[in-house]
Amino acid sequence: MKNYFKNYPLAKTGFFVIPLVVFTIVMGIFFPESAPEHFSSFIIAFEFAQSPDDINLLLSPLSAKEIRQVDVGNYLDFGFMIVYTALLIKAFEKCAQLLDKKILKTGIFIAIVVLISDVAENIFLLRLTSNHINQSLNSEIMSNLDYLKIFTWTKWISLSVLFTFFYALVYNLRWLFKIIGVIFLFPLLYLIAAPEQSPEMLSNFTNSIFLCFFTLIIFLFLYRKKA
Question: Among 1, 107, 140, 200, which residue carries the largest CB count within 10 Å?
Answer without folding.
Answer: 107
